[in-house]
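We append the chain.
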Amino acid sequence: MTIEEAYLKIQSECGIEVRDAVRVLRTAKAGEMGWDNTWDDDMEVGGTEIVNSIDQYGIALDDFWYPFFVLELIEKKVAKEVTMADVCKKFGCEVKIKKEISC
């Protein structure tokens, strides 16, 4: 197992999920602990953000991917998953579902 593979394995088991609230505790070095990304000067430390997605580049908060080991879990699933039905309900449109059937 490579260090990058080990990073992905640990990240998947760190307990942080999409829509969780997390706090960024510190900066990270490029490639630190197998993280396949680099720290950008615009990445913020200390703020609380909602997790947008998780992939091989890290845990996405807004426009940047952070490594799991610089994040502190603050609260689970604080953000509601938004569906197309939610959007239509808010803006008064209608959702039509087209079901395709194949034989």
User: Anything to note?
Assistant: The chain has one domain: 3-91.
